[in-house]
Predict the 3D structure of the following.
Amino acid sequence: MKEHAPTIDPVMIPYRFTGGNFAAKTMHGSGKFKSWMLNEFEAMNLLHHPKLTRMVDAYDARDEMTLISELCTGGELLETVTSGKYVTEIEVARIVRQVLEGVEYMHSKGIGHLGLTPRDVLFVRPGGTYVKICDFSLSHRVVGNVKLDYGQPEFVAPEIVNMEGAGFGSDMWACGIITYLLLSGVSPFRGQVGGSNLPLLTMPDQYWYRSLVMGSKFGCTRLLKDSFFSLFL
């Protein structure tokens, strides 16, 4: 039987049991791809934290799975932030702190997000300041290094590019890239071909010291391949 890669249809629906509006993510696929769907279901079933979108219900069929989760209506992180005239360092600090709280909780449960990008951070409501992490399709229980062949090159950690496996440090790398992007308005690893440039991931450490926003009260003091990430508020 031919395996079909998953396709995803995210929609907003009224939930008949409560009358409220929720997000519905329907995934279609078969064979080994069905295990990806089950993986996201299992991760969301284990994770319950204010900074993570909460799963409300799930519907499973032969080649299809629908996950019902709380609805965040404030929009994606970058889209919302760039729609305003400016964003202050304090606002960036508050956003990143919430993301780190969600990531810290996931790690405390032994689970890595392993696919974190700005699109996976949503504002809870329009004009609000609270955010939540969503999309756990690549999330995995981390024991040692997890083999991972997927990810968005602009945010993927060097160890994944080097086929060394993903771990908790991979999430910290992604948090660092998101922080850098919010502070500087520039994506450090965005290239001209295909929107990304993987060779830049092996650049010398001193590049970061030249490129970071200097004199900021909110600073990324170090972000190297070993993912040592210090955040000062």
Q: What stands out?
A: Residues 7-70 form a domain with the Phosphorylase Kinase; domain 1 fold (CATH 3.30.200.20). Residues 1-5, 192-233 have pLDDT under 50 and may be disordered.
